[in-house]
Amino acid sequence: MPHDDQLIPLHWRLVYDNPLRSAEDVRGFRMEGDGAVSFPLGRMRLESTRDPNEGQSANLVYWCPFDGPEDAAISWEFWPIREPGLAILFFSARGRGGEDVFDPALAARSGIYDEYHHGDINAFHVSYFRRRWPEERQFHTCNLRKSYGFHLVAQGADPIPGTADAAGPYRMLLVKQGAFVTFAVNGMVLFRWQDDGTTYGPLLGGGKIGFRQMAPLIAEYANLKVYAP
Question: How far is CA 129 from the centre of its chain?
C-alpha cells in the first residue's frame, strides 16, 4: 500500500500546516450552523448543538481561512467518535463570480446543504464516513460531488469501520492536479476522476477548505496540511 508521500508530487512543497490542536490554531475559522468546537484530546472536535431531528438545520460547516491554490494536495487526520452522521470536506470553494467564500455579498449560509450546492458558491465536496441513513450504513462509499449543482462525479468504497471498531487516526488525502482529483485513505486510493471542464461546468481553481458534518456525528480532526507546486 503506498504512503501519502508517494501520492503527492515530489516537487510540491508544504504551504499550510495547522495541527488543529487548540483554540489558537482555529483563530479565523468560521462556523456556519450551530456547532461546538473543543479540544478534549488535543485535536479539534466538532459536533452540532442542535437536535438532529431538526434535519438540515442541525448540520454545520467549519471553514478554514486559508485560501488554497489551484493545484493542491490536502491532508488531514480523522477520528469518528459518535455515529450516525456524515463528514464532508469542501475544497476549491469560491463564489460563483470568483468571490472569496467569506465575501459578505454572497447569500448567507447556515449549514443547510442546499445553500452549498445550489447557492452562491462553486466547490468540490468529498463525503466520507457516510453513516447518516440506514442505506449508507449498509453499504459504505465515499462520494465526490461538484457544484454549482449536485453532480455526483466519482465514487469509491469507504474503508473506515464504524466507531465500535475505528482506531484512528485515518489519514485522508485529496490531490487536485489540473483536471484530476484523487482521494485516498491511509494511502489507499479510493477514486481518481478527470474533469472535462464541460459536462459539470468549468474547471474549478483554488479556494477555501471547509469541514462539514451531519448531526449527530461527533468527529475529531488534526494535522491539516496543504501542499502545492
Answer: 11
Query: What is the distance between the alpha carbons of residues 220 and 37, in angstroms, rounded to a whole number?
Result: 10
Question: What is the grid cell recorded at 147?
Answer: 457544484
> Please, are residues 145 and 124 in contact by the beta-carbon 8 Å criterion?
yes
Find, among 222, 210, 224, the residue nearest to 35 by Cα.
Answer: 210
Residue 9's domain comprises: 4-228
* C-alpha to C-alpha distance for 225 and 220, rounded to whole angstroms: 15
What pLDDT band is residue 135 in, cutting at 50, 70 and 90?
A: confident
What CATH code is carried by the domain that includes residue 188?
2.60.120.200
Q: Which residue stretches of the chain are H helix? A: 4-7, 114-117, 134-138
CB burial class (10 A; 0-12, 13-18, 19+) of residue 222? Answer: buried
Q: What is the pLDDT of residue 181?
A: 98
DSSP code for 134: H
Mean pLDDT of the chain: 96
Residue 20, C-alpha cell as written in the block? 488543529
Q: Count of domains in the chain? A: 1
Identify whether 84 is preceded by a cis peptide bond (ω within 30 of 0): yes
Query: What pLDDT sits at residue 2?
Result: 55
pLDDT digits (tens, 9 = 90+) for 73-128: 999 999 999 999 999 999 999 999 999 999 999 999 999 999 999 999 999 999 99
- The CA distance from 19 to 53, in Å, is 33
